[in-house]
Design brief:
Layout lengths: L17 H32 L2 H17 L1 H8 L4 H24 L5 H30 L5 H29 L2 H21 L12 H13 L2 H16 L3 H12 L4 H23 L4 H24 L3 H29 L5 H30 L1 H33 L5
Helix pairs in contact: 1-2, 1-5, 1-6, 1-7, 2-5, 2-10, 2-14, 3-5, 3-8, 3-14, 4-5, 4-7, 5-14, 6-11, 6-13, 9-12, 9-13, 9-14, 9-15, 10-11, 10-14, 11-13, 12-13, 12-15, 13-14, 14-15
Length: about 425
Amino acid sequence: MTRPSSRLPASLRALAHRNFRFYFAGQAVSILGSWIQQVSLSWLVYRLTGSSALLGVTAFCALIPQLVVGPLAGAWIDRQDKKKWLIGVQALLALQAFALAILTWTELIGTGLIIGMSLALGVLNSFDTPLRQSLINSFVGRSEDLPNALALNAMLFNASRFIGPPLAGLLLGLTSEALCFAINGLSFVALVIGLLRIESRPPARATGSMGEVFKEGVAYVRHTWPVRTLILTLAMVNLTASAYAVLLPVFARDIFGGDAGTLGVIWGAAGCGAFLGTVFLAHQRGHGALAGTVVVGSAISAVSVAAFALAGWMPLALVAMAGLGFGISTVNVAINMLLQSMAPEALRGRVVSFFSSTRFGFDALGGLVAGLAAAWLGARYTLLLEGVVLAGFVGLLITWRHRLRAEVVAGHGAGR
């Protein structure tokens, strides 16, 4: 176990652990590259086709494997050497990015190849996300520092989300989508170097067949009411509010009359709000407070997505987008913190896989529905409808808030 230093403020306490610092530094570069690729791919699709429906299909293909493959990947991960496999997955992700760069540079890229490459990315991320998340506890070595480590990891993700899209917009204006994809391929090297510098005891592996390990994880989620409720909330927020990302190119070009730079600014506003949300969560200690944050964040998401849909003035749209980023981020990160804190160590890989499969799988479903609906209703009315649906669920969630807070506090510590 690493010995943490007392010189760091409480909001950064996980960085006192040497192993987590190496992971954090490599992750910083890797996530920035991933955001540059995501924005560039979205712009490429809309530049080539002008189709909001295809934006939804592409996003769906990049995320849906996590809903289908993710839970099984979690059962497989809990039986493996997680650090070794995480390094291998980074190498495959780099190859995917370089292949996308070459196809785009040679102008061989087309609708079919974009969809195929998006599916490949989704399958790899089905393993990458739970591998990364489930290893964090071993990098900090102290269970009481795990929530802060998860908050800092999310803060890093959202800082990159704030910086990456405007940077991608700048790069797209100066160069091309192909270069952006190549930059992402190189960014995975940083995380591999960080992982190779880490010295930690591998987490205990689950025993039994894949089927037995998977059923054990499903039983835990089914019979633990706060876990089940948190995952349901995660599904609803990402099915509705998170669908905004698919339609941003439509808003940037057709509604606000902009270009790739406009897309980067709007996406960056969401990233700014999301970053502020994770800064807020990094200071939180009580699990009861985190449960309350889930409810409030869901409500902010519903209001913000409707406000963005109705905004006709760019500054107001950016404020709404920042609120949307804040709301979605606090919900997703707080739920992840709560689930990992409550989960027993032996089940952590499976719990993380259920989290990531719900988070990204329902994001995929929501994006597909939003893209298809926007082709019929228009982008504005589609997002407004998403906000109304989420507001209805928030009303139900408010009636559960006292029980949720009490059972989350009672369940905390089961994973220690």
